[in-house]
Amino acid sequence: MNNSSNLSSVENALKILECFTIDETEKRVTQIAIELDLAKSTVSRLLKTLLNKGYVKKNPETQKYSLGTKILTLYSSLMSEMEVVKEAHTILEELAHETSESVQLAELEGSSVIYMEQIKSSYPIQIFAHIGRINPIHCTSSGKLLFAYQKESVIDKLLEMNFHRYTSSTVTNPVILKEELKEIKKLGYCYIQNEFIDGIVSIAAPIRDYNKNIIAAVSLVGPIQRINGVKAQQFINKVVEASKKISLKMGYRT
């Protein structure tokens, strides 16, 4: 099957999912085919695939199809992401106010980290990641932290990547990186300096949900001239405390 056919199949499958409404939650193959002006054989084939994946279900008595529970999984995932941004916002603002540095909220997106929220530093020269920005996982505090909490099989798979060296301090050796990930998980936070950008310090801590799953990371970033020595440890404590506050709001209990 060529790329054009693949795209057509995906588009038609999405049309099928969209044809179910509050007023008509169940439909037969023939009805869907007529409404979408598609061949009955095409609709039948796509419904079979959607059924196998859990996106639709079939009533054996009426032979009608309706949306499956997998749709709820996608919806829950979206709601979880939106909820964590909402719940975290005030705490992120407090952290930014207490430290005067830029803070972010990020989640893992495949082999990268994506920023969902950010509060700017109050300093004239600011260092922050805009919402929607995608950064590498191996040399950013949020990325490295979320990397560390993945399943062992996922970590090993990601470690097969060819990691780009951004600075002389960027760790690209998979053996060394794996040891660092173990240490990060042991500590419960990630502190890095000069790994993604020279002269920059970044600190991240995990956010957990009611199932105790790591769903995101809160991070703080600023120049090494401002974040060093005793102040660095103070900021680590503040980031960890902020992550715990957000986790509690997400229903996490020890």
TrEMBL record:
<dbReference type="InterPro" id="IPR005471">
    <property type="entry name" value="Tscrpt_reg_IclR_N"/>
</dbReference>
<feature type="domain" description="HTH iclR-type">
    <location>
        <begin position="7"/>
        <end position="69"/>
    </location>
</feature>
<dbReference type="InterPro" id="IPR036388">
    <property type="entry name" value="WH-like_DNA-bd_sf"/>
</dbReference>
<dbReference type="GO" id="GO:0003677">
    <property type="term" value="F:DNA binding"/>
</dbReference>
<dbReference type="InterPro" id="IPR036390">
    <property type="entry name" value="WH_DNA-bd_sf"/>
</dbReference>
<keyword id="KW-0804">Transcription</keyword>
<dbReference type="Pfam" id="PF09339">
    <property type="entry name" value="HTH_IclR"/>
</dbReference>
<keyword id="KW-0238">DNA-binding</keyword>
<keyword id="KW-0805">Transcription regulation</keyword>
<protein>
    <submittedName>
        <fullName>Transcriptional regulator, IclR family</fullName>
    </submittedName>
</protein>
<dbReference type="GO" id="GO:0003700">
    <property type="term" value="F:DNA-binding transcription factor activity"/>
</dbReference>
<dbReference type="Pfam" id="PF01614">
    <property type="entry name" value="IclR_C"/>
</dbReference>
<dbReference type="GO" id="GO:0045892">
    <property type="term" value="P:negative regulation of DNA-templated transcription"/>
</dbReference>
<dbReference type="InterPro" id="IPR014757">
    <property type="entry name" value="Tscrpt_reg_IclR_C"/>
</dbReference>
<feature type="domain" description="IclR-ED">
    <location>
        <begin position="70"/>
        <end position="252"/>
    </location>
</feature>
<dbReference type="InterPro" id="IPR029016">
    <property type="entry name" value="GAF-like_dom_sf"/>
</dbReference>
<dbReference type="InterPro" id="IPR050707">
    <property type="entry name" value="HTH_MetabolicPath_Reg"/>
</dbReference>
